[in-house]
Amino acid sequence: MQIDRLGIHDSVSAVFPPEQLRDALSGTGPDVGIVDDQSARECDGVVTFAHEEEFLDCDWIHSIQAGYDRFPLDELENRGVVLTNSTGIHGDSVGETVAGYMLMLARRLGQYARQQERTEWDRPAWDVPFTLAGESVCVVGLGTLGRGIAERANALGMEVTGVRRSGEPVEGVDRVYASGDLHEAIAGPTFVALATPLTEETRGLIGEAELAAMDEGSHLINVARGGVVDQEALISALDEEGIRGAALDVFAEEPLPEGSPLWTMEDVLVTPHAAAYTRGYYESIAGLVQTNLERVGADEPFENRVV
Fold it and tell me: What stretch or stretches form a coiled coil here (predicted)?
């Protein structure tokens, strides 16, 4: 494979200005330019946020996200198009976001922010706020995102457990459960944080039965994908006080519709699929892309290859 022309698809503007990435990659070898759907056909490789049919004419697609559920994997494989993703770069940003969610819920900061908008001075009941030290979190999915969450939870003095397919131990996680023991794993913790990719195995992973298995005082955090959670079952569990609250960055439909009750629930935090956002995002993407350009030149395997 030879990459003479590399396109930065304009869809990356959802995360950062495409000019930032173009400039960061200038001088790396290929001709680098910003492209739309049609001009992407003229490229050997394309770096993108979205997937477009025109990319099937390229030799290589790089997704600026870790998740790749939006890409037609079978079709890419049949056409011989290489797909790489950006796993491995989001541990800090997502880990800090989840730490922020837990602090907001525990210390009632979301409630106070809403009160400020209403110029309202009101303290919570004495037994509502709590500290994270000594509380527990179960991280479902212990890849880069999950480990980033676990690292920060440990720093906050929390007990950290986790779930991964193999059940093999992970440094910094007190106990790791296999996927088949999910209900046991999520039964007691104060927080359950979802950090899994969306696959056929994880679609609908958290539904009515799983929410019922969680403690009434527990909070669900989702920084994975909306499809990992049965959103209607979650709304019911919150309405019926089956769980105490939630912090959600991803949803079944995005943007979250204005009529969704999740917007106005007192113990629910809603963020716009931005947990991984950081001003240095484009630099991390540039590093991954440059590494793979070097690997192509040396006829070595792609890093983070999906297909």
Answer: none
